[in-house]
Amino acid sequence: MKLLKTSNVIWSVVLFIILFLSVFYAFISTDAPYYIAIARDISNGNILYKDLYNTYTPVMMYLNSLIYDIFNNPVYHVFLIFQYLVIGVSVLLFYKICKKLKVGKARSFYLSLFLFIAILSSDGTYINLEVYVILFVFSAFLLLLNKSFFWCGIMLSLGFFSKQYGIFNFLPFLLLIVTFHQYQRNHLIKFILGASAPLTLFLGYYIIIENVPFGDLYMQLSGQGYDQEMIDLKPSLFGFLAGAKVFILLLVPIIFLKINPLKDKIDGILVLGIIVNLIPLFIQNFAHYFILTFPFIFILMAQKHQNFNLKFIIVSNISLIIISGILFLRIIRYKEVYAEQLNTALKYEKEFPVGTEVFLYKGYRFLYILNDYQNPVLKEVGYRYGFKPDKDFQKKHNVLMED
């Protein structure tokens, strides 16, 4: 189809421009100081959950700590480029899934470009954990198709160890194994053994080797230490719709692919995969939470490739125009932010030299990266979002916080 080939050329150019501009105008996003500062602390020899209070599973932080081992004082853009490489590998795995499902080259390439741009527009240009989860979900699905059930389980478990919400993927994957390859106890045993392996290694390392009490691990990873200030941030309909822009624009083209979840088991399971990955939205409405649904949305598109028609191509191109337009506007809108962050860093460097122990609250957290400020309460507080220093805390430690 000529329109599809033309679309591939146009969206390849658009993706290149987006990648260039998003790196060129990158600024330190809200969540980045949490993950990158922990990666730095790991590189400095601190042990997660023991020396370093942390409410997330560790894969992303350990991978990013390697950047500190390779580069001396890496700039923020290096971490963003690394995230883009992670997204790129995810898209490549999806392309291979398309080929495995016998989707044509032009269609596979089109869907892959669609996926890449959709991730970037759904907060993928900001440092987050969700892109690591979907990396392992795509890996697990490809291994499932290849009947590598043990490694499929390992990859899905690593998705959980990228962010706890990855646990929701186990239900659809168990059903997919049975549906694609019929019920065989041996398949499920291999899958369960693979899924258990990272958990066994995780518990063995932290509890036996590092002597971290199980209660401490459970408290941090279950969110019991999550601050009330964060819990009180209730989701709203407006917040949901604002965060769901890209997600909704992905669902519109699917209407033309004749999805029938009630009669087609694979369709039904993939739709279930989308639904269960919407559960975190009951807690918060962040746009990057919707990225967790993308593997199931795009695999569903690939699964129904035989129903690709002119209407689907036209409507999906319209969705892509809006999705990429949203992203371009966001990049341009915030293009001056990094310069402002650098000016702030220079301002406070006079008061607190680079490397000083300073606790940073809310709007100043990016200084953990720019000025390499060290958290003075790693073990007791860590980088918890909602912890607000009181007067006693401010007497004991250097603190930068908004009035």
Report on the architecture of this protein.
With 403 residues, this protein is mostly helical. The protein has a domain at 75-330. The chain has helices spanning 2-24, 32-43, 59-70, 76-100, 105-124, 130-145, 149-160, 170-181, 185-209, 214-221, 228-231, 237-243, 245-254, 265-276, 294-303, 310-333, 337-349, 367-370, 391-396; strands at 359-360, 399-400. A two-stranded parallel ribbon has the order 1-2. Helix 2 packs across helix 3 and helix 7 (149-160) packs across helix 9.
Write the layout of secondary structure elements.
Elements: H1 2-24, H2 32-43, H3 59-70, H4 76-100, H5 105-124, H6 130-145, H7 149-160, H8 170-181, H9 185-209, H10 214-221, H11 228-231, H12 237-243, H13 245-254, H14 265-276, H15 294-303, H16 310-333, H17 337-349, E1 359-360, H18 367-370, H19 391-396, E2 399-400
Parallel strand pairs: 1-2
Radius of gyration: 22 Å
The pLDDT mean sits at 94
Number of helices: 19
Described by its quaternary structure, the protein is: single chain
Please bin the fraction of helical residues: 55-70%
Strand content: under 5%
**Describe the biggest sheet?**
2 strands, parallel
- Secondary structural class: mainly alpha
N-to-C span: 59 Å
Shape: globular
Spatial ordering of strands, largest sheet: 1-2
Number of strands: 2
